[in-house]
Specification:
The chain has 290 residues and is of the alpha+beta class. 41% of the residues lie in helices and 27% in strands. The protein has ten helices and eight strands. It has an eight-stranded antiparallel β-barrel with strand order 1-3-2-8-5-7-6-4, surrounded by five helices. It is globular, with a radius of gyration of 25 Å.
């Protein structure tokens, strides 16, 4: 904003008073805008939400027992959510890629608010207490087999940078995870800005047409470093697998939204900001609110 030009002392006093009044009104208007802005309130009053993904490998023959065991854990997660320890829990299976070389085949996601709760989740302190108090004997037996029924592979922590949901966001059953690296000269901010400028209106059109339920841009904050193959993800959210398969390409809407622009230039801007490393399709099996 340009520096304000105050009147010279030699000018008439009446003019000086008018300028002071206008300046005060300007400051008051700015303050009122800040107070009324939802974004301002969220930035100052709400703690950061973290999404913790745990990657699990289940061996052939163990899937039925593993899923039954996760039903037991669901009760524990729901109790922790009721106690205010975290916000949400979700279990997904990997639909693509699959095969004998698959590193993991299930992912759980827990959403927590604030660094204190994140720390408690990372260290396991969030699960302190008598976790099995409300379980039946059969459920306790399954709970005790947790380590036997799956191999723990890794953990990742994300924060959501940009979210474009539909009203029925809770009905998402298929999530397409697009993993991105930064080319030389780019970074998280450049990537997010490109996504907002070029792809946000495209996905908004897909949501409006009923082809998608939402779209997310997220930053992987842990682990980090040059050795990581990707740093950001975008997530395409669908109602079910048939809807995804019928509408997985964004290009029909891309060509309409950017009809008056040079498509090749937009694609070059996209590639200059982020490189797609790989895509993963996940199917939601269960969640704390289902």
């Amino acid at each position: 904003m340009a520096r304000a030009k105050y009147p010279l002392r030699a000018q008439a006093k009446s003019k000086n008073d008018v300028m002071k009044t206008l300046f005060k009104l300007f400051i008051l208007a700015v303050c009122l805008c800040l107070v009324a802005s939802p974004t301002f309130g969220q930035e100052t009053d709400e703690a950061q939400t973290y999404h913790v993904h745990d990657y699990l490998l289940v061996a052939p023959g163990n899937h039925a027992d593993y899923l039954a065991m996760e039903k037991v854990w669901k009760k524990i997660h729901q109790a922790n959510i009721a106690d205010g320890k975290y916000l949400y829990w979700e279990l997904t299976e990997i639909v693509m890629p699959v095969g004998s070389n698959t590193e993991y085949n299930y992912v759980t996601r827990i959403a927590v608010r604030g660094e204190e709760n994140l720390a408690a989740l990372m260290t396991g302190e969030i699960f302190s207490g008598n976790l099995t108090a409300k379980l039946t004997d059969a459920e306790k037996a399954l709970f005790q087999r947790t380590g036997e029924l799956r191999t723990y592979v890794k953990k990742e922590v994300y924060t959501v940078t940009h979210l474009l949901p539909a009203e029925d966001f809770k009905d998402v059953n298929v999530s397409v995870m697009n993993h991105f690296d930064y080319p030389v000269g780019s970074g998280h901010r450049a990537h997010v800005q490109m996504e907002k400028d070029i792809w946000d209106p495209v996905h908004a059109a897909r949501i409006k047409a009923g082809e998608m339920l939402g779209w997310v841009v997220a930053n992987k904050i842990m682990p980090g470093g040059a050795g990581e193959s990707f740093h950001d993800v975008t997530v395409d959210l669908y109602k079910d697998m048939p809807t995804y398969l019928a509408n997985r390409s964004p290009m029909p809407h891309f060509n309409k939204v950017h009809a008056n622009k040079n498509i090749n230039d937009l694609m070059e801007q996209t590639e200059a900001a982020a490189s797609l490393v790989y895509t993963e399709v996940r199917h939601t099996l269960d969640a704390s609110n289902r």
